[in-house]
């Protein structure tokens, strides 16, 4: 066990050694452009399509339905902006939730500037979207709904099957940001009532800078990146071949290990809670008690401000987070906790621990004991 403990796997994960190994030949020997017709290009194209097949198999998708992007954020933008623009003649109303990742929220804001109207659904105190609120928000001109699969801050799993089933009946395109759920929940798109689904490699021990969008057949989309015929004219730009090969290897490893990882993450949560209960410190677990991502553990330590706790943890070499990595550099209050309308004492003291392959149950207990020491010292 190293002296530094990393509990921020929801922000990014270390690249698996097997992924590095799989990528290396595509950074050194197989360097051709997959769009070139000569032998170098054909070798690259073959590797690209093998990787596509592998990632598609992991989520039970048709390989042709996968569009490679430069990130999960780009996949969200392509789904929302591309999906809305392709249907703008049909209607200009979009629905999302108040607890989405900023990749979704900012894409929706962009569309508001382009003349679309967006409804931001509220959530309950567990962070769940209510189907009744969605039904109420749907209008004749609603063309797209985007609700995340699992929340990146509190881990709440949204009722996307119920939402998707309802939207299918209405003929409304449904996108889900599955970036956090991918790799910890079994995702089979053929069984899910979703039309578009975003994923990212660096959340599952793959490289940064590569994501993918699943796009169901006959779902209209306008490209948002222009300049080439790549990805069946849906996303221009030379594919990040080494990154995509790394992504495929990461999905392969995840498929082999997912069950064991999830069991370990659950064990880590209960180990941490046992330490806190025994010490008798005041804490509150945020998010849904049952429908929650196994690797995300959002806890408020009443009486200790979020930033104070994070700084004190960092001093003892424990990395945790306040919320999304895209905003945790700022001292703003989490928009997710705000939307859940929790008491100030809870929202101002929330910490996110997120687990990954480098963590052990012993480490989790050690981190929990460090929290106890910090809380008790500050109380004095």
UniProtKB/TrEMBL annotation:
<comment type="similarity">
    <text>Belongs to the class-V pyridoxal-phosphate-dependent aminotransferase family. NifS/IscS subfamily.</text>
</comment>
<dbReference type="InterPro" id="IPR015422">
    <property type="entry name" value="PyrdxlP-dep_Trfase_small"/>
</dbReference>
<keyword id="KW-0663">Pyridoxal phosphate</keyword>
<dbReference type="InterPro" id="IPR020578">
    <property type="entry name" value="Aminotrans_V_PyrdxlP_BS"/>
</dbReference>
<protein>
    <recommendedName>
        <fullName>cysteine desulfurase</fullName>
        <ecNumber>2.8.1.7</ecNumber>
    </recommendedName>
</protein>
<dbReference type="InterPro" id="IPR015424">
    <property type="entry name" value="PyrdxlP-dep_Trfase"/>
</dbReference>
<dbReference type="Pfam" id="PF00266">
    <property type="entry name" value="Aminotran_5"/>
</dbReference>
<keyword id="KW-0479">Metal-binding</keyword>
<keyword id="KW-0808">Transferase</keyword>
<dbReference type="InterPro" id="IPR015421">
    <property type="entry name" value="PyrdxlP-dep_Trfase_major"/>
</dbReference>
<dbReference type="InterPro" id="IPR000192">
    <property type="entry name" value="Aminotrans_V_dom"/>
</dbReference>
<dbReference type="InterPro" id="IPR016454">
    <property type="entry name" value="Cysteine_dSase"/>
</dbReference>
<feature type="domain" description="Aminotransferase class V">
    <location>
        <begin position="5"/>
        <end position="365"/>
    </location>
</feature>
<keyword id="KW-0411">Iron-sulfur</keyword>
<keyword id="KW-0408">Iron</keyword>
